[in-house]
Amino acid sequence: MDIPYTVEVRRDTGLTNGKIGIWLFLASEVMLFGALFASYILIRVGAPTWPRGDTILDVPLATFNTIVLIASSVTMVMAWASLMRHRFGTFRIYMGATILLGLTFLVVKYFEYSHHLHLGEYPRTNNFLAIYYTLTGLHMLHVFGGMVVNAYFWGPGAKLWKTNPVWFTNRVEHSGLFWHFVDLVWIFLFPTLYLL
Amino acid sequence: MMSDHAADITSDHAVDIDKHVRIYITVFVALMVLTVVTVAISYLDLSTPIAVTVALIVALVKGSLVACYFMHLISEKKLIYAVLALTAAFFVALLALPVVTHSNGFWIAE
Predict the structure, then answer these.
(1) Tens of pLDDT along B35-59?
(2) Which residues of A touch B3 (CB under 8 A)?
(3) How far is CA A3 from the centre of its chain?
(4) Residue range(s) defining the domain that contains residue B86
(5) What is the full DSSP assignment across B64-96?
(6) Is 0.90 exceeded by the ipTM?
């Protein structure tokens, strides 16, 4: 049986089921990160002293990663726009760039983590590092998850373009919504952890 | 050729997309500038409450740009807005919880 309302919109909602699905999922993601942000506030407000992030963390490296992630959001939306303009070849270039930028983010994060671990700065060391590893670790998992989905649409999943281009375009849009959400979370994580 | 299969997407839509692409580039430049502003502000000798407020305002502007233009929330259907309004209400309640519990004698007295 075919999945209903993947291409045509439902009359009652005016949306495809996939679109509603991804937004409901993102709503649950807001609550997940919201709970962790609330924990961060609670721990920070309750602590007698709290270090400024820039005294422990590498701000230039995180700034570079911020630029990388924002650039990846642009390439992601351009990948979708390429499909809307019927340019599959351009889609492949932009989607490939998005995946590579995601990989760059993770590699930079690997060096950042390695540096801290080498200095003996573990999650158990203090509350600041505990919340830093928890929030950035969860965010990294999201980047990795998004990359896996994007790589699928860049590679084997792109076969759908031949048979049902509108459905494929919708899928890329939904994957993009997740990717932009991951970017959005980092926009708040960066000043919260690194600069304040 | 693969692109020939995308016949369902109309040429009118393609013209709209050209407009959108120009907006995406503008938003990208704005986000880059705001990232520099975020870092620059951190070098100013501001008190913690002011620094937090300013940093969060800049982050809110950046986040809004991403949500409105990259995630197309500026022209979404009502149901999506309804879902997000409900989410925002619970999110604010979640963030308010630490503040409420921290103020002695309000909801939770020590």
Answers:
(1) 999 999 999 988 888 998 999 999 9
(2) 86-89
(3) 27
(4) 76-110
(5) HHIIIIIS-GGG--HHHHHHHHHHHHHHHHHHH
(6) yes
Q: What is the DSSP string of A18-59?
A: HHHHHHHHHHHHHHHHHHHHHHHHHHHHHSS----GGGTS-H
Q: Is B14 on the interface with A (CB under 8 A)?
A: yes
Residues B63, A187: C-beta atoms closer than 8 Å: yes
Is B20 in the same domain as B57?
A: yes
Cβ of residue B13 closer than 8 Å to a chain A Cβ = yes
This prediction has a pTM of: 0.92
Q: Identify whether residues B26 and B64 lie together within a single domain.
A: yes
Contacts of A2 (CB under 8 A, 6+ apart): none
Count CA within 13 A, CB hemisphere, residue B110: 5
The enclosing H or E element of B11 equals helix B11-42
